[in-house]
Amino acid sequence: MSALEVEDVGFSYGARRALDGVGFSVPAGHFCALLGPNGAGKSTLIALLSRLYDLQQGDIRVAGHSLRKQPRLALRQLGVVFQQSTLDLDLSVEQNLRYHAALHGMPRQLAAARIDEELARQNLGERRRDPVR
After folding, report:
1. Helix (H) or strand (E) holding 73
2. How far is CA 82 from CA 1, 86, 87, 104, 132, in A?
3. Residue 25 belongs to a domain with what CATH number?
4. Which residues contact 24 (CB under 8 A, 6 or more apart)?
5. Model pTM score
6. How far apart (Å, rounded) are the C-alpha atoms in residues 99 and 95?
7. Is the residue at 19 inside a domain?
């Protein structure tokens, strides 16, 4: 089974086509790098892979799970470390954590329990409602 399969993925920002029929496969146990000039679609592909953007065309499968059909199962197999901070500085600590849990398909009750647990572990429970800024 492939760790990652990208099949006929296309994406447009209005009239501007960012990705057109992109496809590749990464076998389990291997890694790949996305290289290309500014505007080549690297960030768009990562945004699609992490579900920051919805797929417009094609499919992406993570460990055999379709992001289109089984997003929760696919996202559970995925870890992403963004180059820039993905925190919303105007949201509270807890709101940011809830947002990211939802992005990864974590059920609300489980997210609430994990957030409580981690805030306590980091001694940040009393700061949960503070803005990240």
Report:
1. helix 71-76
2. 26, 7, 10, 14, 17
3. 3.40.50.300
4. 5, 6, 32
5. 0.65
6. 6
7. yes
Mind listing the pLDDT tens digit for each residue in 89-129?
888 999 999 988 887 778 899 999 999 999 999 999 999 99
**Residues 32-79: pLDDT tens digits?**
899 999 999 998 999 899 888 899 999 999 999 999 999 989 988 887
How far, in Å, CA of 117 to CA of 130, rounded?
Answer: 17
Residue type, 91: L
Q: Which residues contact 60 (CB under 8 A, 6 or more apart)?
A: 4, 5, 6, 7, 9, 48, 49, 66, 67, 68, 74
Q: Which domain holds residue 120?
A: 93-127
Residue 53 and residue 100 in one domain = no
Domain tally for the chain? 2
- Residue 30: partners with Cβ closer than 8 Å, 6 or more residues away: 3
For the residues of 77-124, what is the DSSP string, one character each? T-----SS----TTSBHHHHHHHHHHHTT--HHHHHHHHHHHHHHTT-
Last residue of a domain, one of 34, 51, 76: 76
